[in-house]
Structures are given as C-alpha cells and as structure tokens.
Amino acid sequence: MNEVPTAQGFGALAARPHADVLIIGGGINGLATFRDLAMQGVDVALVERGDFVSGASAASSHMIHGGIRYLENGEFRLVHEAVTERNGLLRIAPHYVRPLQTTIPIFSTFSGILGAPLRFLRHGGGKHTERGAVLIKIGLVIYDSFSRGGGRVPHHAFRGRKRSLQELPELNPEVKYTATYWDASLHDPERLAIDVLRDGRAAGGDRARAANYTAAVGVQDGRVVLRDMVDGAELPFTASVVINASGPWTDLTNLALGDPTRYMGGTKGSHIVLDHPALLAATGGRELFFEHKDGRIVLIYPLKGRVLVGTTDLEHDMADPIVCTEAEVDYFLDLVGQVLPEIPVDRSQIVYRFAGVRPLPGHGDLAPGFVSRDYRIEAEPLPGADATVLSLVGGKWTTFRASAEHLADRALDLLALPRRRSTKGVPIGGGLGYPTTERSRQQWIAAHSEELPAAQVATLLDRYGTVATAVMDAVIDDPRDAPLEHAPGYSSGEMRHLARSEDVVHLDDLLMRRTSLAFIGGVTAESAAEIAAAIAPALGWDAARAEAEAVRGYRLVHAADPSRMQTPADQR
C-alpha cells in the first residue's frame, strides 16, 4: 500500500502548482475520474474541501443497483448502463460489491397499470397510485432482459401469499405476493472510494496528486485559488481543464470560479441504522424494497449485523444543514411498521443517523421521486483563463466508473490526448486477486496466517480485501500493537497504519470513513478517546490535540442524535 502522509497533499500541489487537469471534488465521481486520467498518463490533481468521500458519496443506501424504478420514468439508457456497471463491479470489486437478494412485498394485483404509462408520458406527473403485482412483474421482466449476457445475478421470482409468509413469516399478513430479484450490495462505500484513490496515485505516481481539506475558493489571473482548510494557506494553481465534480455543491463551486450556474436541484436523503436483532432476523438476510404509503420507494436492509432503513427524498437548500431530522426518523419507524407490523421499533434502537444531498439536476415543479438519476456534462470557459470547466451534473454510485470514463474522455479530447486503456474490467484496490469461493478464501487465509491468528487475518481480508496484506505487515511491524478495549475487532497498530497511510487529518475521518465504527454504533466517548490516543503518535498530536479530536469526533458522529451529543468532557 502506498503511504501518502496528509502533509504531502497540499504541499505536493504547492511544490508544482500546475497540472493538465484539476478535479474539484473528492467524492466517488471525482476520485474515479482521477483514477481514469492517471491511468492515461495525464498530469492530474484533485482537491476536496473536506475529507475524501465525506459529502454525498458518504450518504448512500449502500447499494449498487440498476434502478428498477427508473423504468417507470422511461430511463432505459440509464438502467441498461447501471445494470452493466453493476455486473462489472461484482467482478472488479468483489471485496465490497456482492450479490444482494431483494424482496418486494406487494399488496395489490392490478394497481398502477393505468397510472404508470401516464407517469411515463408526463415525465412523472399525475396522481400517485400503488404499484401492483402486474406492473412490478412487467418491470422485472424488462429489468432481467437488461442483465442478459452479464451472468452475474439470478433472474427474479414471484411468490404468492402463502409461500411469501413461509419465507418471511414476520411480513404484514395482508401481503398478496412478493417479488424477489437480485441487485448488489455495497458493503463499504468509503473504503471502496479510498481504494479508487490509492489506485489512481499508484497509476500516476508524482503526476497524480490529491489533497483533502483543500478548497477551490476563487480565480486569480486565470488561476484557480486553492486554500488549505487546515492552516488557511492559499495557492494559485493552473490547469488546462478543470473538472467540477463537487456533486450537489456544483453551482456553488462554479460561483467561486466566477461562473454562476443553475444546474443543480439536489434532494436530501436520510437513513437510520438500528441495532435490533429481531428486525435483523425478520429480514431473512435479504433487503426489503417496497413502496411506502406516500409512493416513495424505501428499504429495510440487513448490513454488518445492523439494519439500515431509508430513505427520504426531500427538496433541500444547500445553505441549510444536511441532517436526518426527527420527522424523518418518525417516517422510518412508521415504514417498518407497515411491512413488519409485529416487530416493535423505537428510537432507543437507533445507533447511527446520516443524511446527504443527491446531486440531481434542477427539476422545477417535478416531484423529487421522478427526477432523472442520469448524468450529463456541461462545458464552460474558466473566467479569465484559457481553460475549460467541465461540470458533472448528476451521477450515482452505481455508474461511477462509466461517468468517470465520459468525463475523462471529454478532458482527453480537450487536451488532444488519446485514451491509452479502458478502466472496464480493471480490478479496484483489494478486489485484485480477491478469493471469491470459500475454498480459495480459506487458502488465502492459511497462506497469510504465519504471524497473525487466522481469525484476525479473516477479519482483515473481509475489511480490506487483498490490500489487507499491507495492514497485516504494518500490524506485525508495530511493536506497540494491541487490541483496542473499546473498539472490539480493531487493534492500535491497524489504526495507526490507517492514520499514516490514508490521509487522516481528523479523528472523524477514521471513525466515519476509514472504518465502519460509526455505522455499527461503535463510537462511544471511550472508544473515541482510546483511538485518538492510539493514532496520536502517527499524526504528531500532543495530549491536548488528541483529547480535542476525541470530543470533535464523537460529536460529529452523533451530530444528528440529541440524546448522544454530550460527552464526558462536557460534564466536567
């Protein structure tokens, strides 16, 4: 694993303040474009004003899916591309992208048959009616047809009421049918994004530079002004092509660059994560994907021993805080009761809440649920410079490789450079050589268990894919490595390695984006303090800084949950 200490991020840009391409935005679409261009030999730099993958990309539903519901909007091109990309990611990122059995509970037979064509013709207009069994069957047949030749997931199956309740006995007994099909889960979105970043740096060497906590704040004499968000230092930076991949902040980024645009109309989506063994068991190990009574498609999804429930689709002003509100929590608790009425759920079982804004295009009066999830690229000159700004409007996790390829091709055209190779089929990070059968998995674990217990090797393989070898080497070489008392399954040497090698600036980078601790509810005041103390030597923190980071990290993890906001430090 290439270790790139954070101090070199902004410093590397300052040492050589120019590149062929400057990417603004370190979410998955910006990072994938960075990787693609680095693989073409382009001199590319990327900046992200916060931590990498801390914006919209950190608030996903943890799915890689073809978007069956987009068929109703007539988005056949997007669905075909998304299914193709889903099948591709199952091959190139098997450590994080895995087949996901998905079941739709259905409570009517013919409802929606007349309304769906009208919604298609009106682009989402018209009164909502529930989607019935016939309509869902038609959609799944079309959906399966897009998967032909992919060979990565089984086709759908329909069940009547009796069989459905045999398979999922806690389902609402009023269910008439269930439809089960397969998409893919995204177990660790943030870690996959870090893999993409690492691959880009490895492909480009010193011609592929990336810096988190670095913002594009203006234009000066035809150069983009970059600001180090840690110490405030500023740097004019030149590039022939600027790619604005800042997601829902795209218009705000363009405004900072002197070009006010009105491309975006993002909607907020929130989720809650519950530690609820009965609810987890009731899912039968599959995602429940269904229509709530307001017409919104929602999900109940077992993941990492917890249950993810989401999501909302609300208009959002980017000047407002992006948080999961109490009203949204009420909505989630209600939707669980609609499908699994005998499973009591309340706020005490929530261990994590998160929210993000989808980078959707502006859509006027169109209802959020019917706004296109497709993407497009807009080109404008950079004010006062002989450079072009390419803005990505839209984009989603499932299609990140394809949208990055389109952005990279546009940049290559502007630079008059050829594409050297495709990213299609190229393994990502720990997906390279990842064992995909139980036999090969056990062989891999046995081959790497000479100096660490097999159980620990298995955990690291699950956590990092085959780049676990670098983590294991670091743990073995760390004489102070020891299990963490308040973060079971992690060790101090593992945390120090992540802090040194993965651009960690603040403790919350580690708690929320380099590990799954926040997601599973593993961040307590005690675990935050213990981890801060463990990584302090690697990042040069003194005791006061480590304590401050522990308080900051805990508060940011629990920012949307008033019941957990007070730390022991607040009580002293």
Q: What overall geometry do the principal axes of the alpha carbons give?
A: globular
What is the number of E strands?
A: 18
Estimate the strand proportion: 15-25%
Question: How far is it from the N-terminal to the C-terminal residue, by CA?
Answer: 42 Å
Portion of residues within helices:
25-40%
Provide a short characterization of the protein structure:
Helices cover 37% and strands 20% of the residues. By secondary structure, it is α+β, with helices and mostly antiparallel strands. The strands form two sheets. Strands 3, 4, 5, 6, 11, 12, 13, 14, 15 and 16 form a ten-stranded mixed beta sheet that branches. Strands 1, 2, 7, 8, 9, 10, 17 and 18 form an eight-stranded mixed beta sheet that branches.
Give structural attributes.
572 residues, alpha+beta, ten-stranded mixed sheet, eight-stranded mixed sheet, 37% helix
What can you tell me about this protein's structure?
The protein has 572 residues and is of the alpha+beta class. The chain contains 20 helices and 18 strands. The strands form two sheets. Strands 3, 4, 5, 6, 11, 12, 13, 14, 15 and 16 form a ten-stranded mixed beta sheet that branches. Strands 1, 2, 7, 8, 9, 10, 17 and 18 form an eight-stranded mixed beta sheet that branches. The longest helix has 17 residues, at 76-92. The two termini are 42 Å apart. The model is unreliable at 1-7 and 110-128 (pLDDT under 50).
